[in-house]
Amino acid sequence: MKTYIIAEIGINHNGDMEITKKLIDIAAVAGCDSVKFQKRNPDVCVPEHQKNKLRETPWGTMKYIDYKRRMEFGKEEYDIIDEYCRDKGISWSASPWDLDSVEFLAQYNLPYIKIPSAMLTDHKLLEACVATGKKIIASTGMSTLQEVDNAVEILKRGEYALLHCNSSYPAKLEELNLSCIKTIKDRYDCEVGYSGHEFRLGTSVAAVYLGATIIERHITLDRTMWGTDQMSSVETQGLIKLVKGIRELELAYGAGVKKVWESEKPFRMKLRGQ
Question: Which of 5, 37, 110, 268 has its CA 20 to 30 A from that of 79?
Answer without folding.
Answer: 5
